[in-house]
Specification:
2 helices
């Protein structure tokens, strides 16, 4: 689950994707985000401070991963908006 930057394949960066690829990437990020949340919930449920059972490191790592995924998803959304804006600008050009 530790991708440095989300990619559809090894040669295609988010900045180089077109709108359908970005939409697919958002779905992949959301799928990974759901898995992360599920794992986070599991660790939170299994924690028992009375018995000295803690998963602070794991929980922290999963929360950081969730934040990273949110940033990547927002980056994709903003890239889609920019591509649409550029397309509209070109269509409205002289």
């Amino acid at each position: 689950m530790s991708r440095r930057i989300t990619k559809l394949n090894d040669n295609l960066q988010i900045a180089d994707m077109d709108i359908p690829d970005l939409e697919k990437e958002i779905r992949l990020i959301e799928q990974e985000e759901r898995a992360c949340l599920s794992e986070l919930s599991s660790f939170l449920a299994r924690e028992n401070p009375a018995e000295g059972i803690f998963f602070a490191g794991e929980i922290h790592t999963l929360k950081q991963n969730k934040l990273r995924l949110n940033v990547e998803k927002e980056f994709c959304r903003k890239r889609i908006a920019r591509l649409k804006f550029e397309a509209e600008d070109l269509n409205g050009a002289w």
